[in-house]
Amino acid sequence: MFDSSTLFSNAFSGLKGNIIRELYKYTSQPSFISFAGGNPSPETFPNEELAEIAFKVLKENSVACLQYGVSNGILPLREYIAEQMTAEGVPTEVENVVITSGSQQSMDLLSRAVLNPGDRVLVESPTYVAALKIFSIYGARVEAVASDDEGLIPEALQEKLEEGPVKLLYLIPNFQNPTGITLPWERRKQIMEIVKNHNVLVIEDDPYGKLRYSGEPVPHMKTLDTEGQIAYFGSFSKIIAPGLRVAYVVCQEAIAQKLVLGKQNNDMHTPNLTQFIVNEFCRRGRLAPHIEDCCCVYKKKRDTMLSLLNEHFPKEIYWTKPDGGLFLWSKLPEGYSSMKLLEYAIPAKVAYVPGDSFFADESGVNTMRLNFSNASEADMEKGLRLLGEQIGRYLQVKK
Amino acid sequence: MFDSSTLFSNAFSGLKGNIIRELYKYTSQPSFISFAGGNPSPETFPNEELAEIAFKVLKENSVACLQYGVSNGILPLREYIAEQMTAEGVPTEVENVVITSGSQQSMDLLSRAVLNPGDRVLVESPTYVAALKIFSIYGARVEAVASDDEGLIPEALQEKLEEGPVKLLYLIPNFQNPTGITLPWERRKQIMEIVKNHNVLVIEDDPYGKLRYSGEPVPHMKTLDTEGQIAYFGSFSKIIAPGLRVAYVVCQEAIAQKLVLGKQNNDMHTPNLTQFIVNEFCRRGRLAPHIEDCCCVYKKKRDTMLSLLNEHFPKEIYWTKPDGGLFLWSKLPEGYSSMKLLEYAIPAKVAYVPGDSFFADESGVNTMRLNFSNASEADMEKGLRLLGEQIGRYLQVKK
Q1: Residue-by-residue DSSP string for A126-184
Q2: Does the predicted model carry a pTM greater than 0.80?
Q3: What phi, psi does B139 have (nearest 5°)?
Q4: How far off is chain A from B255, nearest CA to CA, in Å?
Q5: What CATH fold (topology level) applies to the domain A4-45+289-398?
Q6: Helix (H, G, I), strand (E, B), or coil: what is residue B250?
Q7: Which residues, other chains included, contact B389 with Cβ-Cβ below 8 Å and sequence gap of 6+?
Q8: Torsion sign (Cα): B22, B26, B29, B33
Q9: What's the CA gap between B388 and B345, in Å, rounded?
Q10: What is the rounded distance in angstroms from the CA atom of residue A289 to the CA atom of residue A295?
Q11: How crowded is the C-beta side of A296, counted as CA atoms within 13 Å?
Q12: Quick check: B198 and B181 in contact, CB under 8 A?
């Protein structure tokens, strides 16, 4: 009489894995060259030092590492983050900081704290695929705000906000995923002026902000936040190591308290050990020089990819030239499909992410995301040559 | 125009911390003696070995520890768990195992995968306080099934199931939290016979099962599960260290896949480092002897508490004599309130958990949970003497 197929909740009965996970069955094959994932380069991981630090914190602080901890995170790490954010122009107390197990969890906890089914959520177009998934699990109506080569268009946001109540606005202002675009300072100011007049919470998701390889840094949107209207998401995944799963939210205390209640009822707390490891690494003053090293590695990879794209991609293809982050964004001519192109690319053992899944609506059929952080230089050379050839074939066949 | 007080979801606007967290402001004071928390004893933590193991796995397997991992958990640990469960009479493949960041997360992920608002969930009476919280966040109607000194009463379950569809039945068969009671084998069989005729998923939550100090082990309920009707929750929190946050679910593959989707959209994956640490500790054959050491420590603590209760508690007071776990359950005479008793206990600097929060209904006003794993022998002696005196005062005043 037990039938598991009838068991699942409305949100979960139709839920599927995302395209990046689905591509994994190809991209995990050894001879495959993938520009699909978003993994940081393992050559940037400070392996030796983290091994030594793990040993040290477990020896010197064993009970604090191994006993149950508090749901908002270990105090020294929250203090460090508060100091950093304050130094970056966002006055922050420890009560404003909640440690999470990765920014994915920041997004999930914030969503469950604020979203009721049917609530409107506004996103850039395109935007981070997992954010779309999470908002939809909570039953939100996700709407794309028109965006251009400089990111979200303030006037388009204004229009959307005037159509009726909006619960959340989700933004990735620096080196956006998937486009690599950075929202200029002028637009950040315009957007903050607009949202001030509306009862909407803004997520400033910033996993890549410190990975800048050219151009001038733009201050956080939250430096303009006089109303406590922004929840800022920071993360150590891309600047230390993602496998540690340590990230944080900086927001007003009333919201922080709800996130902590959500965390109590989700995973109780982020493992103390991984928090102490991150804290020790930062407290040694290792973060800033380490980020410089990462930027050096990634700048080279970005430049290599841009020059290989020039060399190997047909002239009809567009791509962005990001100042930082891990991704660039490319477009086939209108009328072509990047999903169809996979049928050429996969037999040639090269992959990217078709861009349509990054859109809240039906657009983006001709777009694709290319990651430049993970492949070696040799793989990048070979992979982009192969992909360029297959694009050429596809454009030829379709013509 | 931004007003965070209007922001929160229906589930979160009224959500409060649980009583154990609220008592923390007292129990965290240095001179306070607390029987309230559920912390394992830090003297059981294998500090030195875990420090050495953390160093080793990070040195030898650094990229796997630090890069993004798979959402269902690292393969060697899933294999280990599958072998163990198979050896314990539950034939298990790796596809049936999902690693989680603590059993709290197992509960949360399973709840979100199956619960729609209004679904009925049956629990023991009393039951784990955080489970009540999680089910209610997902909008479930939680109903208590009558339970006695041997745990859930099968006939009462039968009645509840016949009243209409039930989505979940939540059980802690071994050394239950909060009562310390173990469900006898005969009842396990009866319950499985009953649920077979209904489309209900059973959670067998077993965080304490391996911590047995007397009596004979009772096989898992899941050994009787021919229909894939049980999701078994195991955890390393009480037998290695809770701060590592490593636990697991064993269940049929269709359910495991939904849990993995939930995890992808929650925290992506449990940190690889903590998984590799647990795996290495287990693979060295250290788990079984370590559990023996823990049982030796806890048996002594349980026996001490039982003998001190005999010595210091008034004769009107009832308490359970658990064969394992971390808790025992006590009752004041009918008509007395353990919440009221706190007004005597807290000024005397001793605490326990008032039992009413462990009930899905309004019962349990005269009950309390006492933890015996955490206090030192000296604190236990002093704390139970103080508590016994205050109970005496309270009984006297009320008389």
Answers
A1: S--HHHHHHHHHTT-EEEEPPEETTEE-HHHHHHHHHTS--SEEEE--SS-TTT-----
A2: yes
A3: 80, 15
A4: 7
A5: Aspartate Aminotransferase, domain 1 (3.90.1150)
A6: strand
A7: B312, B348
A8: negative
A9: 9
A10: 10
A11: 8
A12: no
Flag whether residue A72 sits within 8 Å of chain B, measured between CB atoms. Answer: no
Asked if residue A98 lies in contact with residue A263, where contact means CB atoms within 8 angstroms, the answer is yes
B136 interface with A at CB cutoff 8 Å: no
How many CB atoms lie under 10 A from the CB of residue A5? 7
Q: Tens digit of pLDDT for each residue in A185-223?
A: 999 999 999 999 999 999 999 999 999 999 999 999 999
Interchain contact, B268 vs A45, CB within 8 Å: no
> DSSP letters along B323-371, please?
SBSSEEEEEPPTT--HHHHHHHHTTTTEE-EEGGGG-SSS--TTEEEEE
Check: CB of residue B271 under 8 Å from CB of residue A244: yes
Please report residues of A whose CB lies closer than 8 A to that of B269.
245
Structure tokens at A271: 């493992």
B29-50: average pLDDT: 93
For A67-111, the pLDDT digits (tens) are 999 999 999 999 999 999 999 999 999 999 999 999 999 999 999
The answer to whether B360 faces chain A, any CB pair under 8 Å, is no
d(CA A33, CA A376): 10
CATH node for B60-285: 3.40.640.10
DSSP B154-221: HHHHHHHHHTS--SEEEE--SS-TTT-----HHHHHHHHHHHTTS--EEEEE-SSTT-B-SS-----G
B362 touches chain A (CB under 8 A): no
Structural fold of domain A65-285: Aspartate Aminotransferase; domain 2 (3.40.640)
Interface ipTM above 0.90:
yes
Q: Which two tokens stand for residue A9?
A: 């909740």
Q: Which residues contact A207 (CB under 8 A, 6 or more apart)?
A: A103, A172, A177, A233, A234, A235, A237, A238, A247
- Domain-by-domain residue ranges, chain B? 4-45+289-398, 60-285
In this structure, what token pair is assigned to residue A290?
Answer: 């380490």
The size of chain A, in residues, is 399
Cβ neighbours of A18 in B, within 8 Å: 264
Query: What SS3 state is found at A214?
Result: coil
In which element (H, E) is residue A100 found? strand A97-100
**What is the number of other CB atoms lying within 10 angstroms of the CB of residue A311?**
11
